[in-house]
Amino acid sequence: MGGPAPIDNMNVKGLHLRKLLTLAAIAVFAGVPLEAPVPASATTLTTNLLASATISAGCSAISASPLAFGTVAPLARPSATAIITTTCTALTTSTITFGNGSNYSTTRNLKSTGSTLLAYGLFSDAGRTTVIPAGGIPLPASFTEPVNTPIYGQLAAAVPASTVAGVYTDTVVVTLTF
């Protein structure tokens, strides 16, 4: 039998597999991606993502600076200004109202640690002629925020010389309704 030697199929397959693995390793080290080709007839699907937000009409904050009359000399009738700051969404209709205060009798009063009272008023105008009404002050439906509303205060009469020295205070609840 002097013909060619028979071919061992297992050795041939192993040789091809080793060559294929060697080529793949060389390709990976060379930075060539080993991805399957995308068929030319690939299908693409799309959709829309709806993004939305709802802004509720309303108010989120209210604060007040002190109505500080300062150090008052006898026979003086001081005035002071406080600022009420509100934060509401644009075009929200709102009103601020004022309680009577913690020392109210027939008027708002500042009170010291004793029983001496100093009557005062709250006004919506700088001339201190328009007393804040029981229904409160309607705020503008503003496009800007925050809204600063000045509140004007004045002692009802000159402080008598016989007034006892001390710190006189009152607490008035301010309510924002919207």
Annotate the secondary structure layout.
Blueprint: H1 9-29, E1 59-64, E2 79-88, E3 94-98, E4 108-111, E5 117-123, E6 137-139, E7 147-155, E8 174-177
Antiparallel strand pairs: 1-2, 2-7, 3-6, 3-8, 4-5, 5-7
What labels would you give this structure?
5-stranded antiparallel β-sheet; 178 residues; alpha+beta; elongated; 1 helix; 3-stranded antiparallel β-sheet; Immunoglobulin-like
What is the name of the CATH architecture of the domain at 59-177? Answer: Sandwich
Mean pLDDT, as a whole number? 85
Terminus-to-terminus distance: 110 Å
List the quaternary state of the chains. Answer: single chain
What percent of residues are in strands?
A: 25-35%
Low-confidence stretches: none
What does the radius of gyration come to? Answer: 42 Å
Which outline best applies? elongated
The biggest sheet, with number of strands, parallel, antiparallel or mixed sense and barrel status, is: 5 strands, antiparallel
Please state how the strands of the largest beta sheet are arranged side by side.
Answer: 1-2-7-5-4
CATH class of the domain at 59-177: Mainly Beta
* Total count of helical runs of at least 4 residues: 1
At the fold tier of CATH, the topology name of the domain at 59-177 is Immunoglobulin-like
Query: SSE string, helix = H, strand = E?
Result: HEEEEEEEE
What percentage of residues falls in helices of 4 or more residues?
10-25%
